[in-house]
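Hey Z.,

So I finally got round to the NAX thing we talked about over coffee. Here's the setup:
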Amino acid sequence: STAPVKVTVTGAAGQIGYALLFRIASGQLLGPDTPVRLSLLEITPALKAAEGTAMELDDCAFPLLAGIDISDDANTAFDGTSVALLVGARPRGPGMERGDLLSANGGIFKPQGEALNKGAADDIRVLVVGNPANTNALIAQSHAPDIPAERFTAMTRLDHNRAVTQIAQKLGVGVSDVHKLTIWGNHSATQYPDLFHAEVGGRSAAEQVEQEWLENTFIPTVAKRGAAIIDARGASSAASAANAAIDHVHTWVHGTPEGDWTSAAIVSDGSYGVPEGLISSFPVTSDGTSWKIVQGLEIDDFSRAKIDASVAELSEEREAVRSLGLI
Ligand code: NAX
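And the result:
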């Protein structure tokens, strides 16, 4: 049997944490042959709630769960970790300006980046879920100079999965019939879900829908889905967000299927005109070790404008955290 892999979840006592931890412990993150040791990082006032979740994890008697550690200290929580799911973040409060939001999150993701740099395992993979996810990932990455930058990623898989279902339902097919869908840019309302390269039944998805539906229904439905969930449920997406985090890491570790790709926000190498160093969503494949940006896609004027708008927002966020001294 293999040695347990340490998986750290921050914000472990939150609602995404509650939906995520049981699936990790049951083997859905790393597969049925890999035991996991869970490390739960929370702020001090939430430690007791995290202990309650740990009690329930114990009560599941998961064969793959080798142990649970709970801490409010990032250095302890990230020591020796191979997978870090950074879920805990500072939400935007009433009257909070963007600068305040970025500063508050800088206060979380800077020390976490430093702690990862100091103690994480050599094979560390980081997924940032906590918003603003792309820029939080950039902050953490910039404080971890000894970790290859490409190990820091941010989650757009929930947006991807939402888009897959929207087009599948529109065309009356199953979600498994949708391939090569892409979310470009920022995990925000400016994100661009791209149907022009997506395929359904071996044909372009965009060619099977009206441009009017694509522009005025599909794109806004995907981009504003988070708000629609809050409106309906009275709370933000939790189980679907946890599911997307599982999908992201599972795909990273096990690879994308031949001839298909997925979406993830990864450090730009300048591909598709996205400024180098920004953590932006791309069409990506994984070989089980690292993500690669799918190359050579033709981008028409409509897509170009949408990608540029979202990437411009990421550049502005980078400038803002730079001027705040956070990167
Ligand atoms: P909750 O408020 O339920 O939980 C957040 C938890 O993080 C709390 O328990 C809090 O104590 C903890 N926390 C705060 N600061 C911390 C720190 N410095 N170290 C460790 N833990 C800390 O939020 P939840 O609904 O679980 O959402 C978590 C984050 O995911 C939010 O930032 C949210 O905006 C973001 N989301 C991102 C999505 C994505 O697709 N990338 C979608 C879902 C979600 O909205």
